[in-house]
Specification:
alpha/beta, six-stranded mixed β-sheet, 13 strands, 39% helix
Length: 325
């Protein structure tokens, strides 16, 4: 596990009031699910900084954010969450259900801001979207809806799908729920569902052998920060095996997945900074309604389609928000 610190500064008067102009930086800790060097983690930090800039906060003096990462293994969450609290932060940012749960088990006073978490109500993190209660707020996602939509898109791209393999993270509570929805939908469509649970202690070659032993026609990645951290490896593997890979995060399409469909991650993270600003101004997280995504995007990678020799239907291409050539 590693820690890095970056300072975010700027229009202090506009954000926290004139009385804070000469105060020390506000301390915030990010409890992240991946590794600090993963592309997904670097994008997360980039989006956080964009959100800070959107709210008039620029680098220099105003906020100090310390990053603490689980290195893609959620078993590390209790330890790094305890570490986060030892830093005496005024707020904590989280990008995983596991991280939010671990932090919430340790404090009911320090505000927790979700950077896009799937179904926090079902996870027991909040009472409702309108009235979260407790000490958590931010941005939530509807992973089940977008996953089933992604699956429907997969059937449009490959009408004769026989077997679909899905990779999930068993340490992500929301993935267990998504597994059931995925399997039920496959059964309704007459396809065989194969669930492969990610284990960070396994070597990637051994895990890939397990996935492709059942000779799947298509591969789907469940929405999860630790899985996102391995996007490039999964995409390269799918292309090598000549299998179309579908994911709910745009990063996968950028790395070589055939199709991605889901909420716009950048929008969610930037919007979450609005909640961070509000709690640092003294508002109670319990009284800040949790928001959900308002924008989704379908991205198709035509380079991968050509590499797989896949002819995608024109009506699917016509619905794409972006086609990568």
């Amino acid at each position: 596990m590693d820690r890095r610190t970056f300072c975010v500064a700027g229009a202090w008067l506009a954000v926290f009031g004139a009385s804070r102009a000469s105060a020390a930086p506000r301390r915030v800790v990010l409890v992240g699910g991946g590794r600090s060097t993963d592309r997904s983690s670097l994008l997360l930090i980039k989006f956080i900084r964009e959100g800070l800039a959107d709210h008039g906060i620029v680098e220099g003096r105003d906020i100090e954010i310390e990053e603490i990462w689980a290195d893609g293994d959620y078993k590390n969450m209790p330890k790094i969450s305890s570490n986060a609290l030892s830093r005496n932060p005024e707020a904590i940012l989280v990008n995983t259900i596991s991280g939010a749960s671990a932090v919430k088990s340790l404090t009911n006073t320090i505000p927790i801001v979700m950077l896009s978490l799937n179904d926090p109500i079902r996870a027991g993190l909040a009472e409702s979207l309108a009235n979260p209660g407790g000490n958590i707020t931010g941005v939530a996602t509807s992973g089940e809806e977008s996953l089933l939509k992604l699956l429907d898109i997969g059937f449009e791209a490959f009408p004769k799908i026989g077997t679909i393999a899905a990779i999930s993270n068993p340490l992500n509570p929301s993935n267990i729920t998504l597994e059931k929805a995925f399997s039920n939908q496959c059964e309704k469509r007459g396809a065989t569902a194969r669930i492969h649970r990610w284990d960070p202690s396994k070597s990637f070659p051994n895990f890939s052998d397990e996935i492709f032993a059942s000779r799947p026609d298509t591969l789907i990645i469940m929405p999860d920060s630790a899985l996102n951290a391995n996007a490039k490896a999964f995409c390269l593997l799918a292309i090598e095996k000549k299998v179309g890979l579908l994911a709910s995060v745009r990063q996968f399409a950028e790395e070589g997945a055939l199709i991605s469909y889901g909420y716009v991650h950048r929008d969610n993270v930037k919007r979450a900074i609005y909640f961070l600003k509000r709690v640092l101004e003294g508002e109670k997280a319990a009284k800040l309604p949790i928001e959900q995504p308002s924008r989704f995007e379908l991205v198709i990678n035509m380079r991968t389609a050509r590499a797989l020799d896949v002819d995608l239907p024109p009506y699917l291409l016509g619905r794409a928000d972006e086609i990568m050539e």
